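agent> fetching stored inputs for the 3-methyl-2-oxobutanoic acid docking request
agent> found them:
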Amino acid sequence: MTNLVDKYRGSKARGEKITALTAYDYPTARLLDESGIDIILVGDSVGMVVLGYEDTTEVTLEEMLHHTRAAARGVKNALLVGDMPIHTFDSPDEAVATARKFIDAGAQAVKLEGGVSHAKHIEAITRAGIPFMAHIGMLPQQVREQGGYKVKGRSPAEAEALIADARAVEKAGAFSVVLEIVVPDIAKQITNAISIPTIGIGSGEQCDGQILVTHDLIGLFPWFTPKFVSPEARVADEIRGAVRAFIERTRTGGLSNG
Ligand code: KIV
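agent> prediction call returned; pasting tokens
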């Protein structure tokens, strides 16, 4: 496990791009793993694309651990990262206690949202020997305070704050950092300013890797797709088609199910 973390830490120097996707259940995690993905994140985005909440602020620790256990059963090769939900890391001690619960549930590393503001929490986690992935830029757990999912790094002050966040999480021991909807030029500057890999989501192509919510990539949450996503499949349409075919053949008595 530590080897995987070292591998991804070193991928930047080797110029190898890191690939990361979300999974919240056994079959999806297994499919991603078997397809060769580097990192699987049990993201708190589960709240929106699986549990039907309005945003990620309603997700509980119990829900996250439940999904982490399920995903862990399907992973053999990828690095499994558990996403710490809001208000489960309000102090450094609480952050370590929560991180340990994710490790007990089968995660090999954890992630939380925050930069300079959470350097002490991150340091406590990494000092406890738990591999840590940072997350800066747009922080979905703060969507209500921020009034929406807004691009970060547009003003010089915001760009400076982001670079400070990136440096702080690197210093605190993170092995990588997610940059969420950061202006691509600023994401590139951050990528050049730190030695750990940046993993972008909606932050341009100059990051050291890319992460997406799998439901967005495969078109499994058709009611909303972020602007920066180009879906590679239309799974929702496949499901609708299969269901309609089943309804049709059942109602017309065309085909029995045994
Ligand atoms: O919860 C999540 O899926 C995430 C990714 C969007 C990075 O944090």
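agent> quick read of the result: The CA atoms of residues 2 and 131 lie 8 Å apart.
agent> awaiting further instructions
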